[in-house]
Amino acid sequence: YTICFDELEKGDFLGRGQFGTVKKMFHQPTNLTFAVKMVNDTLMESNDSRNSEIMDLAAPLKIGDGCPSLIKFYGAMHAESYIWILTEVMDTSLDRFYAKVFAMGIEMPELFVSKVAYAVTYALDFMRKAKMMHRDIKPSNILLNYTGEIKVCDFGISGFTTNSVCTTFKGCQRYMPPEKIDPYLSGNGYTIRADIWSLGISLIEISTGEHPFKDSNGVLGLIKSIVQNDPPKLDQSKFSPELCDFTDKCLVKIPDNRASCSDLLDHEFIKKYMETPNDLEYIKKVMDEVKKDIVEA
Ligand code: ADP
Ligand code: MG
Known about the structure:
- The protein is an alpha+beta fold and about 300 residues long.
- Helices cover about 35% and strands about 20% of the residues.
- The protein contains ten helices and ten strands.
- It has a five-stranded antiparallel β-sheet, with no helix packed on it.
- Strand 2 (about 10-15) and strand 3 (about 20-25) form a beta hairpin.
- One of its GO terms (molecular function) is ATP binding.
């Protein structure tokens, strides 16, 4: 089936990022609802090859197909000075979820953190097998819904934005691994292990309610924190040995010594909760509060 941009009915606002807005949109002919990210095409390197106001839903297999922890990616089109990127809709992202948990003064259960760790590691392992990496793992690119599903988004988007501002800006953020700054560390090049570092940072952030480099001063301060200081660590007196060990294994500065996806899938922190489903009552309690903010925004 073919979708034309003018058949999409704009619905609820879902969020705003550095490069565009994400809205829920309904497509009546197929009865499908999408999350549509609209990025101004001036941020894109060249538009000539993408002058398509329509998008084919039956396009060749997309990368996320077959992986339950990757957001379904339907495709992209170019219309009205925007690139429209169509994906599956979720209820919110982890940056908002964890912020709400701590604002409500409640705990972030390790059960939940373990489910996040598992979903992201599973998604990265899937991408690794497809010879891809993510490059932008962070809480706002980890989405969840009321049924407790946790999925990674914004993968493969970098293909649309090569050499654009997006990649330049992305290179300069708080989740980047030491080998991206210090080439001396990256003996085997920049690989999926970079995403594992970002996962470790994200898990510390959602567990403590704070980004571990929140106190770094400017870009130089941040670079110093990442490359020169010891890697961030969870407080052993507040978190289980399994969770502390999981983040320690993600946050090894030399990429070759950092855990691989299979090491992590086999880790005690994942195994500990493997048989326990996510706590849907807890998720609903927090998500209802998150939703209130989005309506007000
Ligand atoms: P960033 O990831 O840097 O926050 P984005 O433009 O990628 O910026 O996304 C903006 C916000 O939109 C996200 O933080 C998230 O809360 C929301 N969002 C993105 N994609 C979806 C989706 N598929 N379903 C629901 N919400 C989404
Ligand atoms: Mg995003």
